[in-house]
Specification:
Elements: E1 2-9, E2 12-19, H1 31-50, E3 55-60, E4 63-68, H2 73-92, E5 97-103
Parallel strand pairs: 1-5
Antiparallel strand pairs: 1-2, 2-4, 3-4
Helix pairs in contact: 1-2
């Protein structure tokens, strides 16, 4: 199962941690993992390449961590859009993604 943990300050997202394999299909053939990866990378690239917002990004084997170093509405919008997209995928492919929210 893919796990996505969104860090929130009140109603505002400030980071995300995504890890794991959805288990929908074999590695390299899993459309859920492809969709998650695409959504996460679009979010990361949108924040890091299209804005001047400072953030910490760590990409590891089967793990991605992003933490905003500063509050900016556009970065928060990117993270909320990612959360919504992952919820859509989760709802369509039951049992493949677990989404949690933690207050920081």
């Amino acid at each position: 199962m893919t796990t996505a943990v969104f860090s929130m300050r009140g109603n505002e997202p400030c980071g995300v941690y995504v890890q794991g394999h959805s288990g929908y299909a074999a590695l390299g053939e899993d459309i859920v993992c492809s969709a998650v990866t695409s959504a996460v990378m679009t979010t990361l690239n949108g924040i890091t390449e299209c804005t001047d917002i400072r953030c910490e990004v760590e990409v590891l084997e089967n793990e991605i961590i992003l933490n905003l170093a500063e509050r900016k509405d556009i970065a928060e919008a990117f993270l909320m859009a990612l959360k919504i997209q992952l919820e859509y995928i989760r709802d369509e492919y039951d049992g493949t993604i677990k989404i949690t929210v933690t207050e920081v």
